[in-house]
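Order emerges. As here.
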Amino acid sequence: MIEEREERDGEIVSLTDFAKDCGVDLVQGNKSGEMFLTTVNINRPGLLLAGFEDYFGEKRIQVMGNAEYYYLLSCTKEDRYKKIESLFGRKIPCIILSKNIEPFEEVLEIASKYDIPIFKSNKLTSQLVNDLVTYLNRKLAPFTTIHGVLLEVSGIGVLITGHSGMGKSETAMELIHRGHRLIADDNVIAKRIQDEIIGTSPDNIMHFMEIRGVGIIDVRSMFGVGSVLREKSIDLVIELQAWEKDIEYDRLGIVSQFEDILGLEIPKLTMPVMPGRNLAIVVEVAARNERLKKLGFNAVEQLLSNVNFGEEN
């Protein structure tokens, strides 16, 4: 049901996708049209260019700003060539020039020699580094694949899980019809980004749903662009279970349940499925109740407080 893949060696990204996602321009590519990213850290190569080669992060994206540019400009052409070759000879993933700095001829020549791509950005160096770190944190985040349906219900990311035939997709369909939004059906990719679990759909099945008796439908085409969302934090897990008369279900919500997803505990509810029960309305109420809890209001605590106050009087 859940396939964990917390350890990742890295991610292969196309140069065009990287340029688009990071808002940079590709100046010169490489033969494969791809690069391999392995770390969220960014490096400024100034110390290496100045001759200090210890502790250099060759697996990191290299960002060159004014400091590196004017330092290289002050060097002789022969010395500059050696320094730039010492950088590209480390087989770095790529180099990005900030503030629309034009690359030296030596940079273009040596990058071609070592088959390393070059990008350019009009952003300030500090802003560029911040944007790259954000991008890499999302791209290289640990992830897991969960069988379920993820929706945004009243602003809350609700992950509906349960065995096949429990009515996950039908419940989701009713919620979409009521104005809520679909993120993923069947396979939910959950990534841990810092202290949040972000859920999305595989690209090849995004916006599609399988409804038994109907088949595959395209939710965006059927209900409009406002009915879908690319990603959402997972704030609540609702597990649908077949109702059994011998099981005593929590009726007050006093006992808190949690689902561990990539080391984070997400609030969880176990919802019994029985004939005649409108699951969509119950899920909607559960989402609204979770939103109230996030705002600091807990109905159970308020009720117990009222009862205790009445007994004291």
The two ends are 52 Å apart (CA to CA). The chain has a mean pLDDT of 91. Residues 145 and 284 are 24 Å apart (CA to CA). The chain has ten helices and 18 strands.
